[in-house]
Design goal:
single chain, alpha/beta, five-stranded mixed beta sheet, 5 strands, globular
């Protein structure tokens, strides 16, 4: 499946193909942000599409990508199991906790989890 805009819980979301190109640089993130302007309000990126450096906070990859989405006021959902990465880094655990409350970046286990977050946001 190519990256495609899907309506999820009433919100247009660019759902990225798990087999698509990796998101490893700020330029890769900007490519996704550009695609969002076709009508999506959020981007759902599978964990497997993210470069492993995303989960090593010292590389600053996660911070740069997350900041770019926040700057454009777009929601980024990291979709999939990150438990292995969380087990290796207390800093990442703290980032995920804080991000999940901020509203711009969410870490969800699957697309159903994203739908639940979007529905909860709509009822606020």
């Amino acid at each position: 499946m190519p990256d495609e805009i899907q309506e999820r819980a009433g919100v247009p979301v660019l759902v990225c193909d798990p087999a698509g190109p990796p998101v490893a640089t700020l330029e890769d993130a900007l490519d996704l942000i550009g695609a969002v302007f076709l009508g999506a309000e959020a981007v759902a990126v599978p964990v497997d599409r993210l470069d492993p450096r995303f989960f090593t906070l010292g590389t600053r990859v996660a911070g740069e990508i997350m900041q770019k989405f926040a700057t454009y006021r777009l929601r980024l959902a990291v979709v999939g199991d990150i438990s292995r990465h969380l087990a290796e880094s207390s800093a990442l655990r703290a980032l995920v906790r804080e991000s999940d409350t901020s509203g711009h970046v969410w870490f969800v286990p699957d697309l159903d989890g994203l739908d639940a977050r979007l529905r909860a946001l709509a009822t606020k």
